[in-house]
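Good morning,

Both structures are done.
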Amino acid sequence: MASMKAVVKIAVLLAVLSSVSACSSWVYRIDIPQGNFLEQKDVDKLRIAMTKEQVVFVLGNPVAANPFDNDTWHYFYALKGGRGNNFEKRLVVEFKDDRLVNISGDFDKSADFDKPLDI
């Protein structure tokens, strides 16, 4: 009789645990964005020979600054989705003599990138 009560208690305990773990899919998990959110339309505004101030006006401040190389800026955006759908984008902006010379990363250069704004 005592062993039957133990079996019933274990069965009830297992049923409760399985129902609680099934509820974990109902829990709301927030998305966690980090960094600079950039869109292709923003990157398309960049032109060769732009000043650093102009680039900051278009893209905002870079997320990572290198104190040893002030001529390379890194823009990074990551979204950790609550349901596991993660997203990352990177953009590296390079300057020479405080003028924009190149961009690289997950964004395309616009067709007008090599045309300075002055023309």
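Second structure follows.
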Amino acid sequence: MDIIWEIVIGFLVGLVARALMPGSQSLGLIMTTLLGIVGSVVATHLGVAVGIYEAGSSARFIGSVVGAMIVLFVYGVIAKKR
């Protein structure tokens, strides 16, 4: 059940990140969900490295959105190079 919950939260995080990011992103449902999940992972690791979170804790919603926006920015830069 935890995996399903993380997928749902990842989808919501991905939607919020896409809404806050300027420009148009042509991502589908699966890519939006993956964006949110990867953003949560990025936020957790950056938070531990900076000292915001303790090791073993998960990133909160705002941190996850910021992480997803970072991933979306990197994705946009890579996609433009093609």
